[in-house]
Design goal:
With 459 residues, this protein is α/β, with parallel strands linked by helices. Strands 3-4-5-2-1-6 form a 6-stranded mixed sheet, with helices on one face. A 6-stranded mixed sheet has the order 8-9-7-10-11-12, sandwiched between helices. A hairpin with a 5-residue loop joins strand 3 and strand 4. It is flat, with a radius of gyration of 29 Å.
Length: 459
């Protein structure tokens, strides 16, 4: 049990700022002292009651709706009181202060970030994957991400993990029965088709990993850096992709001197597109800083678009500069990060050819942009989103990769025969533990602290 997890807590549950309605939420083993002091009357369970919220002297702070959710039928699994008042920040602060004053006798304190959802997890109202989905639903930047987070919150991801775990437990039972009764002549594993069960587990896991990867893309997106020599059209490409004039475009080389970024959506996947300063040798101290920042962005990219100027394809000095920059890029980015050569200004050089496999477009007219978007999604590993995609995080993917590695080891031990059965049993146990990490069946308190600290206060 985490420290102070039994304390009653209170917080403003709506976003900072002015609004039509604001909510103050209280949760604990009993919130009756706060109900008595602030509402001044009994509340029927789960029924909205319109009444004045009273200050310590009996005067009204505001008038609004009070709802009491008795345990365990509440968001947190504890007694919960929600006070819905007018959404002014001063009113809500006064109401929160009054609740804290009224709850002094029961040790009421201000909630920490994510503590209401943490209570829901600790009281078995939701599992850890569902708790994370709540934050992902709030933070969703696209409609597809919101729908996927909603599916995770409804338990679709957790049920997939549960089915994997059940199949894994059944296989572990067979293996450990064989270990426990070595004198039996019955070959449990052969008769139960343990090899086939393990193969089916791996196939099912591959499907879960693929959908989880899609969900992680919807949540995180990819970082795409546009790089190249000055005047290749990098800022024009950013503007074309964003559909807005975000970056200044002029014929003067070195116009862009700082990083300009914009997030766009392609099939629901967020693409964080970053325009950078033109890469060249420069004595201008401001431009040099911009070029240093450009290389820093390139080093942290998920994909790099290297722009060539198609109108100057016959310029030997320009071609040599591109070649040197591409060689430098190969040393600056990991081998796993794709560098896509894009030939811009196709509208002004209609007949000029481009190397096979490289892209041709016009940032000015928009010709070829759809091919570029499709290539970026392909490089990210995105496939046409099926309805079954659920939101996932990098830690979920890491856990699934551990499961996959343990199952591969288990298959090797199973194929080795009876002498390796104890090692087979251990790999299956480790695979089950990795699955449990996703839903929080056995999770360290320090991991919970990291996860819930990213939530907003009041949630």
């Amino acid at each position: 049990m985490l420290p102070r997890s039994a304390d009653p807590i209170a917080a403003i549950a709506t976003a900072p700022g002015r609004g039509a309605v604001g909510i103050v939420r209280v949760s604990g083993k009993s919130v009756q002292p706060v109900i008595d002091a602030v509402c001044g009357r009994a509340l029927r369970p789960r029924e909205a009651t319109y009444l004045p919220f009273r200050a310590a002297d009996g005067g009204p702070i505001d008038q609004g709706l009070a709802i009491h959710f008795p345990a365990p039928h509440s968001y947190t699994g504890e007694d919960v009181l929600e006070l819905q008042a007018h959404g002014g920040p001063v009113v809500l602060q006064l109401l929160l202060a009054r609740c804290l004053e009224a709850g002094q006798a029961i040790g009421l304190r201000v909630a920490e970030p994510g503590e209401f959802t943490q209570r829901a997890f600790l009281n078995d109202k939701i599992d850890l994957a569902q708790a994370e989905a709540i934050a992902d639903l709030i933070d969703a930047s696209t409609e597809a991400a919101a729908r996927s987070a909603s599916r995770s919150l409804a338990g679709e991801f957790s049920r997939e993990i549960g089915r994997l775990r059940d199949a894994l437990v059944h296989l572990r039972m067979l293996v450990e029965a064989t270990l426990d009764f070595p004198e039996e002549e019955i070959d449990f594993l052969r008769k139960a088709d343990a090899h086939g069960q393990l193969e089916r587990l791996q196939t099912t896991l591959a499907g879960v990993m693929q959908r989880a990867h899609q969900g992680a893309l919807l949540r995180e997106g990819i970082k795409v850096v546009i790089a190249g020599q000055p005047n290749a059209g990098k800022s024009s490409l950013l503007n074309a992709l964003a559909g807005a004039e975000l970056a200044i475009v002029t014929p003067i080389a070195g116009t862009t001197r700082d990083v300009v970024s914009q997030t766009i959506q392609v099939e629901g996947v967020p693409l964080h597109v970053i325009d950078t300063a033109g890469l060249r040798e420069s004595s201008d101290p401001v431009e040099k800083i911009g070029i240093e920042r450009a290389w820093a962005q390139i080093a942290a990219a998920d994909a790099v678009l290297f722009l060539h100027d198609l109108t100057r394809a016959d310029d030997a000095a320009l071609r040599e500069g591109d070649r040197q920059l591409l060689e430098q890029l190969a040393t600056q980015v990991p081998a796993s990060v794709p560098v896509v050569s894009v030939w811009n200004k196709a509208d002004a050089a209609v007949a000029a050819p481009v190397p096979e496999g490289e892209l041709r477009l016009s940032a000015r007219t928009g010709a070829g942009l759809q091919d570029l978007r499709a290539r970026l999604l392909e490089l990210a590993g995105w496939q046409a989103a099926p309805e079954g995609v659920y939101i996932a995080r990098e830690r979920h993917l890491q856990a699934l990769r551990r499961v996959d590695a343990h199952l591969m080891e288990a298959m090797a031990h199973l194929s080795a025969g009876g002498l390796a059965l104890d090692l087979l049993a251990e790999e299956l146990r480790l695979a089950q533990n990795a699955l449990n990490d996703i839903t929080g069946a056995f999770t360290a308190d320090d991991l919970l602290g990291v996860i819930f600290a990213s939530f907003c206060i009041g949630k």
